[in-house]
Amino acid sequence: MPPSIGLIICSQRTPRAGPQIVTFIHNTIRQFYPPETATITTIDLAKWNLPLYNESGMPSSINSADEYEHEHTKAWSREISRHEAFIFVTPQYNWGYPASVKNAIDYLFHEWKGKAALVVSYGGHGGGKAAAQLRQVLQGVRMRPLERMVELRFPEIEEVKRAAKGEDLGLNVHDTNRIDAGTRHAGTLHSQGNFMSAAYDSLFVMRMPGCIISYYPTGLFFKSAYNHRSTHCIPLLYYHSSLMVHFISLFYTLVGLLPAAALPSPTHHTLETITCDICILGGGSSGTYSAIQLKDAGKHVVVIEPNNRLGGHAATLYLPDGNYVDYGVEGVFNNELSRNYFSRLGVDWKPLLPLNKRTDFVDFSTGERVNPAAGILQALVSTFLYRSSIKHWTFLTRGVYDLPDPVPEELLRPFREFIEEYSLEAALQLVFLFSQNVGNLLDMPTLYAIQNFGVPHVDALIHGYITPKNGMYELYRQAREILGSDVLFQTNVIATNRSDSGVEVTVQHANGTRQLIKARNLLITFPPLIKKLQGFDLDEKETELFQKWFWRTYYVAVVNNTGIPDKLWVTNTDPTNGLGYLPRMPFDFLLQYMGAPGYSTSKLVGDMDFTEEDARDLLAADFARMKAKGTYPIQDPQIVVFGDSSPETLMVSPEEIRNGFYRKLVIYPISARYNYSVKLNDTKICLHTGSDFEVALKNLKLWPFFLSRKSRLFVNHSPDTTDNRIYESVLRPLIQATI
Fold first, then answer.
1. Among 81, 440, 618, 649, which is most buried by a count of CB atoms within 10 Å?
2. Which of 217, 251, 580 lies closest to 383, judged by CA?
3. Residue range 91-108: average pLDDT?
4. Residues 6+ apart with CB under 8 A from 320
5. Which of 596, 111, 518, 576 is nearest to 368 (CA)?
6. How far apart are CA 139 and CA 81, in angstroms?
7. Residues 676 and 737: beta-carbon distance below 8 Å
8. Which DSSP string do the residues of 684-714 spell out, in sequence order?
């Protein structure tokens, strides 16, 4: 029997838009996949008699429907019990979800417990806040909601009004052949697009009669092809192949969380086994670099990438006039390793030179211009004094968390105290330029500040940087050609099983088929958060360590039609915040001109609960304040591309550092029988590298550190092998282990 999935209409209002949106979702699933994939049942809360909770007992103490007092509760219990997973489709009312769905959830406990869930939200702002709140509630009844959610955003107030009246929104599932799959390459839509983005997690744009459709992973926007203002000339959510890919991918991730017994017959959904030397999870900068190096060493690698492109946070927006905007990684250290890697990929490079631009300092919280905390000459001089003040911690110049025992207490004190003690206030402007991802920098342990901007980073300012002549994404376009079928795109890990002889990785593709990969070694290049390791065979020690992380959310945007002059950087500067005039979280750090007339980039940082919707609202509010104060002739700013680089900068508390957290996370080579592992006490797991285990610049990267935006790598190496540390400490042992 195929698994049963309940599709819940969370709104009970009359009139309402919920039923037609749910029908649209249901038809989307059915267009792509046959009924044997899953049984989809619509559950309309408006048709269920569920008064405010009126059972005398606690749901968590009731184990069967017959134990409830009221018939409506018994019926509700039986309905929920017969489904293995749920898709909650909720509107956003006043920044929250409807009370009706909370009441429906609260009636039960065991009927929900352990089941997978996907949240789809809709509204004038996309419903991100409602979805996040609902996801927390689902976790509270021990469900397993997907981390990623789908937001369907109404383009203008007129569509909001139509939805509120229950009027037809024109939600039709159109023939997918309208958009030839051959026109898509590496996450772009070429044939019909005036804009192209190489970032799957940000934007696709295509031109249709009179309109430009901009796809984000959280929804679609419609803009006039002539003035870039939002318009409703095409029905809301006019069907687009990228939205299909995103939603269906999440749908099959949902199915993948179902119990094995509930899944369709393996004879229809399992492909042949792949055997390889190294399986790499993640095709970002570190995963791609590792794959190329290992392939060149004669190893058979298989890269598992959830999206449909390589590159991770290296994102490039290509414009109709031939210009482009790199809004992720901008360049790399100019050293032999970087140049050799560019040459290996056949990518031409150029020096990444400072633009002929000026910098304005503006308090984004008021919109007014302010004076900087220090002049540029003071900042440069103080930065080299900063280098002198930290160089004696030689274990940090290696770019890793290879910490002594005990960890020097000075490194655990707030960075503010370190700056004050050594009178380095003037250096903060430059330090923060490369460390804004840490958030409230002055409040964080000094260790994290230095790991994000340390001796190697200061030295790199002297030697300079290089960047591809045709945008950072060119590296990954070329890498894709070289790796070919060794990369499995739109594929997620369902389970892992480790043994002395290697590791077995079960993956699921976007079309629902599963595949077993048998590898001698496993390289994980994504942040090791518990929520990202669902299905991995973690033991108690691993789980205990990985659940201690906290992090920052980090969003990037490309905006146009702002009214801010070209060749200008606008730096967020808060004179009320003491040292360095650094902004407080959440903040929009910098509006940065990147060389394409009319376009700027923005980087927004917040705590773990800072959502995409919050970030968009903050950016709009910053522009509004500048306009109100007359600081710039702000016009009608439009977000052309929006990307999510979270989680950023994994950290633990000073107490955890003091108690040896990083000593328990040391990569070391052991016998060939165990290949190459991470040591967590005496527990063996696979090798971890990537964005949160390496140390490098945030936007101007070091290739030995895999060009990663967020970087910390637990690797031991000699201080005099800086340029080859990753190869010598990670890749060479992997190569030797598979000989």
1. 649
2. 580
3. 95
4. 194, 195
5. 576
6. 17
7. yes
8. EE-EE-STTT----SSEE-GGGTT-SS----
Do residues 281 and 304 lie in contact, with contact meaning Cβ atoms separated by under 8 Å?
Answer: yes
Contact 334, 701 (CB under 8 A): no
Residue 473 pLDDT grade (very low, low, confident, very high; cuts 50, 70, 90): very high
Residue 423: partners with Cβ closer than 8 Å, 6 or more residues away: none
| Range(s) within the chain of domains with CATH label 3.50.50.60 | 273-309+471-537
- Tens digits of residue pLDDT in 164-201: 888 887 776 544 333 333 323 323 332 233 333 333 33
- Residues 457/711, Cβ–Cβ less than 8 Å: no
Residue in this structure with the two tokens 């369902």, named with its chain if needed: 494
Give the per-residue SS3 of 385-420.
HHHHHHCCCHHHHCCCCCCCCCCCHHHCCEHHHHHH
How far is 176 from 601, CA to CA, in rounded Å?
33
Helical H segments across 346-375, by residue range: none
Token duo for residue 638: 């439009």
Note the CATH number of domain 273-309+471-537. Answer: 3.50.50.60
For domain 4-164, the CATH superfamily is: Flavodoxin domain (3.40.50.360)
* Strand 116-123 to 150-153 pairing: parallel
Q: Where does the chain hold its CATH 3.40.50.360 domain(s)?
A: 4-164
pLDDT digits (tens, 9 = 90+) for 476-495: 999 999 999 999 998 999 88
Three-state secondary structure call for residue 361: strand
